[in-house]
Amino acid sequence: QVQLVESGGGLVQPGGSLRLSCAASGTIFSRYVMSWYRQAPGKQRELVASITMSGTTNYADSVKGRFTISRDNAKNTAFLQMNSLKPEDTAIYFCNAANVFYNYWGQGTQVTVSS
Questions:
Q1: Residue 17: how many other CB atoms lie within 10 Å
Q2: What angle is formed at CA 44 by the lines to CA 43 and CA 45, rounded to 5 degrees?
Q3: What's the whole-number average pLDDT of the chain?
Q4: How confident is the model at residue 42 (pLDDT cuts 50, 70, 90)?
């Protein structure tokens, strides 16, 4: 059974940083595109960043230059480094693993940016 477990969320002041982790188990991690999505209250879930099996990255315009996605295939873990956080970054952040055959989601981790 495939599991994705996010961690690293919390409360941070504007301008601060957080690092989210997504630990995968039950599958061959390197065969998936790993992505981070977020969903704010009353809004649709949106793609934040993704990284392919070969390491090519893609970012939403709203986070370019502030967030960095990475992966460690040896540790079956994906990361999202978030810097210069803004109140509008407040949301539940979800990890996603996908390929042409499968699509898996984590349970989400809350990120709150507030003074």
A1: 11
A2: 120
A3: 96
A4: very high
